[in-house]
Design a protein that fits this description.
169 residues, alpha+beta, 4 helices
Amino acid sequence: MDEIDENTWILEPQTPSRACKERRFCLGKNASIHVTLNPYYPSTIPHCRLIGADHFNYIILNLLLLLMVRDEKELLLTNLKRILNVTIPSPTNTLKEDLLTPCGICYGYRLNGALPDKVCDYSLCGKQFHSSCLVEWLKTLPSSRTSFSIIHGQCPYCKKPLSVELNFR
């Protein structure tokens, strides 16, 4: 985790420590990755959850499957850079303010300690939202509908289809 802490913009936790087994860091303006290491088996494949537009996640998810062929001698961040073939924003090449995008509904960056975790899938929009803000927004729309534990409606900005789980974390 030291390599990630030193070479990326950490979004969560706000003050990372060596005792914390999770990190969420930026992959780009509207994309981040939440990595959880198994402290008992640190060399195993980490659990990775991508946060960003679905079209971005689909591309990255396929690439992350290649982690199974990762070089176990290399550190996690080095493997991610090689497999994803991207430049991960870091304090040396990017300002953190350029990467932080507030929620498109409440206009806050953190809400009860949570970062925006839902992104509009329309590539020309890409607005970020807190799941709780989006659920409340979609509940007010007469055109929204709920199926199982997912509420479906329209993006407040571009009116493209958008959905979010009611049981967000």
